[in-house]
Amino acid sequence: MAKKTKKPNQKMQKWIEARKRHHLSHAQIHMARELGMNPAKLGKIDNHKQQPWKLPLPRFIEELYFKRFGKTSPGAVLSIEERCRLEAAKKEERRTARSRAVDSTTTGEAPLR
Predict the structure, then answer these.
(1) What's the DSSP call for residue 39?
(2) How far is 23 from 7, CA to CA, in rounded Å?
(3) What is the maximum alpha-carbon separation in the chain?
(4) pTM higher than 0.85 for the full model?
(5) 16: phi > 0 → left, psi -120 to 50 → alpha, else beta; which?
(6) Report for 11-15, 34-38, 47-51: range of highest mean pLDDT
(7) Is residue 33 a part of any domain in this protein?
(8) Is 78 helix (H, G, I), strand (E, B) or coil?
(9) Are 20 and 73 in a shared domain?
(10) Residue 1 domain-assigned?
């Protein structure tokens, strides 16, 4: 039987929706998250057709990132889905280690260190 893939939590799901709605790349989403932007408020920033003095959202994020961090792009870019997958694997690993530690203390064995 195949393993079920868990949906990302609501916070990450909002970033996935924002990526699709505003046609952003994984790197641009990564930059926006590092800058502390709110995915619900990206629509206000991405209004360059009605307000021509505004930059298009992808360029705006890239310029802000360069101003703040002095780099054009983040070092290692992971998609949101991949990041969630890695976090879930890490969480599961911690859970199994914790259960092994609890089992060893109940049986009287020394815990693994």
Answers:
(1) G
(2) 21
(3) 71
(4) no
(5) alpha
(6) 34-38
(7) yes
(8) coil
(9) yes
(10) no
